[in-house]
Amino acid sequence: MLPRKQIGAPLLTLTDIEAAALRLQGQLLDTPCLASKTLSQMTGATLFLKFENLQYTASFKERGACNKLAQLSNDARRRGVIAMSAGNHAQGVAYHAQRLGLRAVIVMPRFTPGVKIDRTRGFGAEAVLHGDTLEESHRHALRLAERDGLAFIHPYDDEAIVAGQGTVALEMLRAVPGLDTLVVAVGGGGLIAGMATAAKAMKPGIEIIGVQASRFPAMVNAIKGTHHRQGSSTIAEGIAVGAPGVIPLAIIARLVDDLVLVEEGDIEQAMVMLLEIEKTLVEGAGAVGLAALLKYPARFKGKKVGLVLSGGNIDPLLLAAIIERGMVRAGRLARIRVSARDVPGSLAKITATVADTGANIDEVHHQRAFTMLAAQNVAIELVIQTRGREHIAQVLAALKTAGFEAEEQQ
């Protein structure tokens, strides 16, 4: 658990978040917060999922954006706004600026997925690709804001943004008052700071747990005093933040109970499970909450846990790769290597043996040159679809019974 820090007067109050909720009425969805029986059985906790991926821009980010834009002065509205974002904040600002008739310029890192760039431009915003990190995009956005007189809309280090994000907790606790714990993705910290402010005021005993990708542990390091190294990329690019926000950091230090890290494989597994079990598409940042429950089941066992599926914007090619990798981890896609005499009929016998077990062959590769087998032998690699680990073992046993040497390749 985090040491409880007292840092001056509260930056935000429940009143601020309730006022934000009033501004947002009719402008975005009060998304469903539904129980997941299957995931509850698998994790040992009673899980309730908050489907923020169903927002029009497929992310909670439009809550903060809408709250901020609604409070701009007439002069600021006339001049327009600028933001920096890897995608979801960009879409939130672009959509609500378009709705309010404001000019919007969004500075995005060059690595931003194409689907997020296209959607941002689709909302009428001017997308400027600059820099390889959010920090570089941030500096460029500030330069453009000063040059063109635009109001800068920060993705997380702004009280109005944090208050808007906090409305997620209002809705969750009104829908499921009995929640014991909220598990929330953490990048810059705007979402968890707003949710913690609301939730702790409504239910002081509730536990708030933040989750970061291990490759971007800035908030964990800042709060816990650790020195985890920062990576260069993560599948959870929506929370790939190199430095936490000052305002969220102060709130998190006061109100959040703990912060945990999850690995890339944990996140990928959670994404595939949500797609397969809940039939809902989430991006990496949206899946880290479930990833935490899968990685640390003991600390959540028996509790009523609310998870925020914070976003659903993901590049289709990346999604396809994640699904395929998930099938490999589950043993539903396997690569096996079979050694056989290089004579007519060997391949036919191998494929017939695999077919008899009920497995399906995706790919076949012959390897004659790059092998240590005798010259008259051939190594055949098969990529097969199976029903799981036990089925792979059955395929290997059947091949050995048929007289072939066979092993699974990792």
List the domain count as a whole number.
Answer: 3
Query: Overall mean pLDDT score?
Result: 91
Low-confidence stretches: none
Total strands: the figure is 14
The termini sit apart by 38 Å
Question: How many helical elements?
Answer: 17
Helical coverage, percent range: 40-55%
Based on helices, strands and strand pairing, what is the structural class? Answer: alpha/beta
CATH topology of the largest domain: Rossmann fold
CATH top level assignment of the largest domain: Alpha Beta
Give a quick rundown of the structure:
With 410 residues, the chain is α/β, with parallel strands linked by helices. The protein has helices spanning 14-24, 37-43, 61-70, 74-79, 88-100, 114-122, 134-148, 159-175, 190-202, 218-224, 246-255, 264-277, 284-295, 297-300, 316-329, 346-356, 389-401; strands at 33-35, 46-51, 81-84, 104-108, 126-129, 151-152, 181-185, 207-213, 258-262, 304-309, 333-341, 360-367, 377-385, 405-409. The strands form 3 sheets. The chain has a 6-stranded mixed sheet, sandwiched between helices. A 4-stranded parallel sheet has the order 5-4-3-6, sandwiched between helices. A 4-stranded antiparallel sheet has the order 12-13-11-14.
